[in-house]
Amino acid sequence: MNRRKRDRIGYFFRLMGMHIIMGVAIIFLLRAIGNVEKGGEKEAQKQLEDTIKKVVVNCYATEGTYPPTLKYVEKYYGVLIDHDTYDVFYEIVGDNIMPEITVVRKKTAKGEVANE
Fold first, then answer.
1. Which residue, 75, 90, 98, 105, could crosslink 70 as a Cys pair with Cβ 3.0–4.6 Å?
2. What is the pTM of this model?
């Protein structure tokens, strides 16, 4: 095999190797972006739950009782809840006990999480 043909084969393998490495790097990048988006969605859910809890405690501090309903929190304390994306469970346990508050992302008919 002459040198020119050998150089061409070497060039071909180097070129293919570069393409494979770039393809793998792109796949890792796309997966990382997807994970960041999912992390942002989880953070938004946690932030909503924390906000509602803070407002409920604030209501107890100012009014002496916990809010009777979640609608009360929305109406008088200005909390905005995206009801298309989240289900918020507000369960009153007792008069002087903080209500149980749980925020869950809704799922679509296909079982996928809403707004993905």
1. 90
2. 0.65
